[in-house]
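User: Sequence in, structure out. Go.
Assistant: Echoing your sequence, followed by the structure tokens.
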Amino acid sequence: MDIIISNNTSKPIYEQITSQIKAMIMNGELQPGAPLPSMRSLAKSIHVSVITVQAAYENLQRDGFIDTTIGRGSFVSAQNKDFIQEEQQRRAEEHLQEAAEIGRTNGIPVEKLVELLKLFYQGED
């Protein structure tokens, strides 16, 4: 499992691990039922503490991406991809609602916000 940790970001390490594993599940790189490395082995391979990996796995389990069984390990949840995508869409909606409120209260035209969203979506920031 290729997890890349960046020290040049304000994002905590456990969140970097969480988001990368979520992305692997969403894009099909990790299939339902696939085992994840043990917390100890992942921590060793990416040179972080076991507690950091534990926090990431707890977040993944809380969000329904993995199932963990004591003595067996952690596995990609058999939950369907539509549920996961729906959850991510809900998160995006929250951010868009906040952006709309900022635009409305500060007189930013909706066309400008749409233009910015398109730029960010295409990765041209």
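User: And one key feature?
Assistant: The mean pLDDT is 91.
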